Amino acid sequence: MSARLPSLRRETCPACGAYPGVGVFCSECGVLMSHPESGDFAAPYLRRLAAELLDLLLFLLLPLWLFWMWQTSRDGQSPAKSLLDLYVIDEAGQPITAQRMWVRELVIKRLVLGLVGYGLTLLGPILNAGWILMNPDRQCIHDRAVGTLVVVRREAPVLAEAVPEPQAADFQMPPPAPSGPRLTPPPIPVPGPPRAVGQNIEPAAPARPTSPELEALELERTRLSQTEYERRRRALLRQLEESS
User: Do 131 and 221 fall within a single domain?
Assistant: First the structure.
C-alpha cells in the first residue's frame, strides 16, 4: 500500500485558482492536486457508481470477466472501467501495476468483500459501492484498503503561472540618515555612596545665630568651665533674640 499524500496542500488550485478543499482532488474543477499537469480528474459520482455495479454484473460471467480482466489490468482498468473509460491509479498519482490491480479487483473486492457480503445478504457489496457517495475522493472500501483512486483522463489543464519567489535584489534598502551636527548627550549623574539599609537621612542643621559677643565667648571657652560657658552663652543668645 502506498503512503498517504502529505497533509500540506496548496491554498489555491493551480488549474482553476479556487480553494481546492481537503480531498486529493480539487473540489471545484476535480483535478488531481498531487499531479495537476497529468490530466487526471476525479471520476463523476454516478459514473463511478455505475462502473462498480457493471463490474458486479460482468463478474457473474466469470470466464469472460477473467479474460477481460487479464487484458485490461495492465492499463489500470477493470472490464467495466474499460467500457466507461475510467482508470485506476495510485494515491500518489502514479500508474498502478497489473499485480496490484488483480489484488484490488479479485482478492479485496471479489473474495474478501464479495464473499463476506454474500454471507450477510449482499451487505458487503452494497456498503462497498455506497462508500463512493460518502467519500469526497470517490473511493470504495477496497480503494482505501489498497490506496488507489479512480480517475477520468482529459486534456491536461493550463496551469497558472507560479509566482516567483522574491530575490534579494527586489528589496530596496531605506535611504541613509541625513548627516548633520551631533548633539552632545547630557552628563550622566554620578550617584553618591550607597546608603546602608535602614539608615535614616538626617536633615541639615539650621544656621546658628552669631554676634561679636558670642565670638569673643568662643575664644574664652578654653579658660571657662562648662557651666560658666553655658550660662553666659544662653544669656547672650537671649539678648540676641530680644534685640532682633
Answer: no
